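Work Package 3 (structural annotation) set out to generate three-dimensional models for the target panel prioritized at the project kickoff. During this period the team completed the workflow that converts sequence records into discrete structure tokens, so that structures can be stored uniformly alongside our sequence database. As a representative example, we reproduce one entry of 184 residues exactly as it appears in the project archive.
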Amino acid sequence: LGMQGFYRSMMELEGRKHKELEEAAAQIVKPGDAVPIDSAPQERSEVELAKELNAKGGNIIINDEGQVADKRQLLSAGLNVVPKPKSASTAPSAASARTSGSQQAYQGVSSSKQAMRERQTRLLEAQLEQATKRAADDEEEERRRVEHAAKSRKTESDISGAKERYLQRKREAAAAAAAAKGAS
């Protein structure tokens, strides 16, 4: 019940955050409004914004490809950063801008869920690898023990030969003792 409750509360929290982001995006961009998009050179890229916030004491992660790993940290007070269009000739409509904002919020939630799944997958793989290694070690130890037992086992001919030698020595000792008594 402990872990199940924990994950349930995590999912509810992520769901509430997602709904809040959708509502904020819906309030900012209404269906009839046109979204002005300036392609002015003074706009800063996400990487520049992240570096600036890191310089001020923020903790924004930039991955190896030069992209911001968690865009939710760039968003402040419900204002979504709309990504620049790929080509200058295509300008998104208000509906597509609204859906892209909600998609960004959803991708933020789904990326955290995906990261959680990846961590769990790596943990399970590590546990499986340890169990496999432990089983292989146990099997190797059992094989060594069986080999040692087989090596130390005496064959029937070895046992019968040792028994005959013992009985021969015993007879010789008895004969020597009888000869010593007879000579005295």
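The mean pLDDT is 77.
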